[in-house]
């Protein structure tokens, strides 16, 4: 067999957080000239492994060798200096500084003369990097807060690429990107491979992993199960290796019945914002209304408007009984739940515990007289954490230390506990592994059968088709199609209206 040029070797790596053994005797070899996939269930250790390689934290045991030499970066800057860069799962940018300052964070001295940073020079250099990636629409001097989730991720990719890394780690980034953004990402990592560099690519999407990666390593409960070359890819087997048991292939709804009631739960009329153009819709009890489109079509903004988080320039939103939804407090009183796509900033209180996050919106319900007893709170939080199989040390653990997918489960659990009547889910399965994905679909189905109203915003077309009673497609802020539930709906049916 042809001898491979190994760029990074990890040997016998262990890492624990309290009682959680995140990595157990992990060994992995990454070659030059390859895109190496890393898959595993939520909490299996993917981010822990990649963040140790990227210098964000240290392992307890084990060694690494990089370009033939012992390697153990003290911090992220040392790793970057050695040629290892990472694009993380969450937002790792600062919104109150410019795009250029974000790209060159920690590298400002390159643009310094004396104590002054030459921002003109920095902006020009950032422009070159952005243009190199085809990001002509992003302005180097603009504050990052003026850009959306996807554009911020693309700025992170630009930052990671700037120093021409030898090894680039991409941790569950594609879910934040539209087709356009993903094409930029794939072009970038293919380019690195073709320059004899390497990429460690983490994703929950097995189809994507199979299409993008030359080899894939599967992690389960902190241990390596196996590494497969492309010739041995088989999605069913890979899923089984990930979860350690047989799993159903079809986890979407199988019925094609009509929606359960015609009673209106929410009504939006002629909504206009900077993005949305004259959007009107009705959501009924006993239905899942799917909203599909490209990430920047206005669908995430629509979710915020419906929950009262964002005021439209014109138009109105009210509940079926005519109550205007002007802000989130009214929405909460009317038993509306909203799970934002922006998990860390809007859906969770990161520095609070799992228990506090799950209980907060339900405190009124938990009160006995004027007080909430700790025992009642704990039982309540445990019940909902358990329902969604949150992988945790203890219920009083800080949410900030959970894996990305487990944070998502807490975000969902928090709203389930409220026993809301209307649910607005924005990308409910973002970053969630196949096992829990099917649990969430099950849950949506159970809510529907209980005649709750569910609005599901999603960038994943199979999910929109598989779960919705009706689908509304948004394109450039306008509704372009309404499609009823049918066996004949395919991704192509929707794409026709999306692009
Ligand atoms: N700083 C931390 N403190 C406590 N526990 C942690 C910390 N970081 C990770 N963990 C735990 O280690 C385990 C592995 O987490 P990790 O983030 O590596 O998983 P992952 O495979 O990347 O998951 P996901 O797919 O959900 O992103 C999880 O149980 C997680 O809760």
From TrEMBL:
InterPro entries to which the protein is assigned, alphabetical: AAA+_ATPase, ABC_carbohydrate_import_ATPase, ABC_transporter-like_ATP-bd, ABC_transporter-like_CS, P-loop_NTPase
Keywords: ATP-binding, Nucleotide-binding, Repeat, Transport
Domain ABC transporter: 8-246, 258-498
SMART domains: AAA
An annotated Gene Ontology molecular function: ATP binding
Matches recorded under Gene3D superfamilies: P-loop containing nucleotide triphosphate hydrolases
Record's protein name: Putative sugar ABC transporter, ATP binding protein
Source organism per UniProt: Christensenella minuta
């Amino acid at each position: 067999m042809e001898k491979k040029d190994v760029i990074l070797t990890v040997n016998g790596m262990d890492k624990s957080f309290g009682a959680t053994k995140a990595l157990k005797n992990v060994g992995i070899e990454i070659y030059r000239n390859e895109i190496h996939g890393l898959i595993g269930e939520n909490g299996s250790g993917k981010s822990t492994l990649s963040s140790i390689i990227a210098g964000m934290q240290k392992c307890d045991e084990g060694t690494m060798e990089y370009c033939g030499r012992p390697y153990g970066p003290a911090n992220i800057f040392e790793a970057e200096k050695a040629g290892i860069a990472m694009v993380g799962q969450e937002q790792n940018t600062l919104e109150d500084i410019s795009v250029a300052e974000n790209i060159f964070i920690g590298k400002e001295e390159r643009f310094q003369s004396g104590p002054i940073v030459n921002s003109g020079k920095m902006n020009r250099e950032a422009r070159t990097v952005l243009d190199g990636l085809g990001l002509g629409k992003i302005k180097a001097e603009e504050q990052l807060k003026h850009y959306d989730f996807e554009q911020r991720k693309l700025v992170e990719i630009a930052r990671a690429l700037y120093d021409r890394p030898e090894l680039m780690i991409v941790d569950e980034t594609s879910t934040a990107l539209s087709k356009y953004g993903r094409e930029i990402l794939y072009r970038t990592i293919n380019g690195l491979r073709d320059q004899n560099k390497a990429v460690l690519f983490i994703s929950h999407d097995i189809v994507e992993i199979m299409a993008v990666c030359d080899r894939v390593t599967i992690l389960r409960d902190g241990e390596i199960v196996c590494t497969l070359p492309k010739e041995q890819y088989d999605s069913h087997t890979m899923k089984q290796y990930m979860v350690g048991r047989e799993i159903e292939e079809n986890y979407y709804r199988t019925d094609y019945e009509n929606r359960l009631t015609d009673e209106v739960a929410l009504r939006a009329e002629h909504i206009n914002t900077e993005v949305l153009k004259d959007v009107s819709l009705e959501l009924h009890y006993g239905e899942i209304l799917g909203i599909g489109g490209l990430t920047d079509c206005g669908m995430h903004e629509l979710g915020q408007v419906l929950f009262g988080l964002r005021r439209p320039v014109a138009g109105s939103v009210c509940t079926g009984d005519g109550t205007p939804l002007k802000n989130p407090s009214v929405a909460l009183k009317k038993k509306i739940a909203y799970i934002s796509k922006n998990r860390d900033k809007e859906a969770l209180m990161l520095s609070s515990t799992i228990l506090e996050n799950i209980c907060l919106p339900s405190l009124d319900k938990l009160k006995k007289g004027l007080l909430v007893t700790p025992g009642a709170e704990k039982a309540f939080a445990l019940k909902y954490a358990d329902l969604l199989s949150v992988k945790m040390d203890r219920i009083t653990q800080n949410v900030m230390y959970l894996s990305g997918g487990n944070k998502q489960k807490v975000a969902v659990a928090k709203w389930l506990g409220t026993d809301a009547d209307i649910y607005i889910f924005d990308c409910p399965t973002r970053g969630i592994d196949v096992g829990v994905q099917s649990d969430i679909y099950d849950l949506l189905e159970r809510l529907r059968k209980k005649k709750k109203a569910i609005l599901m915003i999603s960038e994943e077309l199979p999910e929109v088709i598989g779960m919705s009673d009706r689908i509304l497609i948004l394109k450039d802020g306008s509704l372009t199609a309404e499609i009823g539930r049918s066996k004949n709906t395919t991704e192509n049916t929707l794409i026709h209206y999306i692009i």
